[in-house]
Structures are given as C-alpha cells and as structure tokens.
UniProtKB/TrEMBL annotation:
Belongs to the SOS response-associated peptidase family. This is Abasic site processing protein. InterPro entries: SRAP (IPR003738), SRAP-like (IPR036590). Its EC number is 3.4.-.-. Signal peptide: none annotated. Keywords: Covalent protein-DNA linkage, DNA damage, DNA-binding, Hydrolase, Lyase, Protease. The keyword Protease applies. The keyword Secreted does not apply. It comes from the Bacteria.
Length: 232
C-alpha cells in the first residue's frame, strides 16, 4: 500500500457506516474532513474505544517505538508479523479503525512516469481499515501516531499493488474495536477476515495526485472513465 489516501467525508458518515451504538466523543469536528490527498505524517481521523465510548481523534499517520530513532516512522504494519514482532509490540493491543474513502497506488505501465490508480469500495461506501497506534487518552492529549495493517493483495488487485489495507466489514470492525476482544481473536480477524478484492474497484486518476500540495475533488475523478471490469 502506497502512502496516499482520501478521507473527505464527515466523521458522522464514517461512524454511520461503522453502525456502532452509544455516545461518540468527537474531537475532529462536524464538517467534512476534506482530505482528498492525505500523506504520511498528516493528522487523520481515527476511531477507537476508550472508557466504553467511541472516540474520533486526529492522529498522525505514522508511528515508531521510542528506540527506533534510526528510521522513519512506518505508516503500515504487515499483518503476518504485527502481532508477534518486537517493533509493534507496544501498540498491538491498542486497536483502532482508520475510516477512509479510497486509497491510491502507482503502477508502472511503461510510460515516463507511473500511473496513479484510485481504489474504492465498489458500492462507494466508507472503507474501514484495521489499525493500531499510540492513541489519545482522556488523561493524555499527546500521542505518537498510528499505522494501518496491510496484507497481500489478491485477485486483480495484485496488478495494482502487492499489498493492500486490511479492510473490515462493519461487524468485524466493531469486534476489532471492542476492548473485550482477546488479542488472539483480533489477530485472526486481521489475518483471515479482511474484505476480498471483489469488494473493490479501481481506475486511473490524474497524475496531479502525485503532488501532496494538490487537494480537491478533481483528484478522485476517473481519468478517461477507465473503471476496472473485475467481476463482482
């Protein structure tokens, strides 16, 4: 998964997709989030549970443990290693959902530059990405960030990129967030129950998305209406 995504809907649209009952502690505001071209280190809306309430907080995309000062903060964690490797041991128990509208990948198609593709749900619904992080708490406003869990791609999506986010259906996203869900069960959800490639479609978009300074809805428009025909 490359380091670009969109998060432009309002947080209430994402919470509605999650369909999680109870109070929402909203620290990101009620207006549309408006990020059409989000990149690493940006503050993104993240959903997590604390004190039996769903929280929406702005959290930096990217995290590293305090001892890993010799490398940039990763933005992703490989599902095959995240539960048992030392790098993410500190934050593996701190589960979250990064709700997004789509993400971008770049493909070498033989031209002078790689061609960007947008990947979204086939039905246009929000995408609920399994994530972990150093999360805000009621008594601590500072935080280090979060990473999105990724898995091997499958189906036609392999032609776009070899990795993709672990995307959870709403019922599994709620179970992932539930503090009562054992870590062993959470690992099985991430490893085996992410949504299949058939739930997504992808199409070419403007090369303008390659410049993070570019923002706006024109970045998510199909280029020459070339939407993939992968079978449902």
């Amino acid at each position: 998964m490359c380091g670009r995504l969109s998060q432009y809907r309002g947080i209430h649209d994402f919470v509605a997709a999650l369909s999680m009952p109870g109070a929402l502690i909203n620290n990101v505001g009620d207006q549309p989030l408006g990020r059409y071209n989000a990149a690493p280190t940006m503050q993104l809306a993240l959903l997590h549970v604390a004190d039996d309430k769903l929280h929406a907080d702005a959290v930096r995309w990217g995290w590293r443990p305090h001892w890993a000062t010799n490398r940039a903060a990763p933005i992703n964690a490989r599902v095959e290693k995240v539960a048992h490797g030392p790098f993410f041991r500190q934050i593996w128990p701190h589960r979250a959902i990064c709700p997004i509208d789509n993400w971008f990948e770049w493909v070498d198609e033989g031209g002078p530059k790689k061609q960007p593709y947008l990947i979204r749900h086939r039905d246009g619904s929000p995408i609920l990405c399994a994530s972990i992080g150093q999360l805000p708490t009621p008594n601590q406003g500072e935080h280090d960030g979060f990473v999105i869990i990724t898995a091997d791609s499958a189906g036609g999506m392999v032609d776009i990129h070899d990795r993709r986010p672990v995307v959870l259906a709403p019922d599994l996203a709620r179970e992932w967030l539930d503090l009562a869900t054992p870590k062993e069960r959470a690992e099985q959800i991430a490893l085996h129950q992410g949504e299949p490639a058939e739930a997504f479609e992808w199409f070419k978009v403007s090369p303008s998305v390659g410049n993070v300074r570019n923002q706006g809805p024109e970045l998510i428009e199909p280029r020459a209406l070339e939407i993939s025909k992968n079978p449902p």
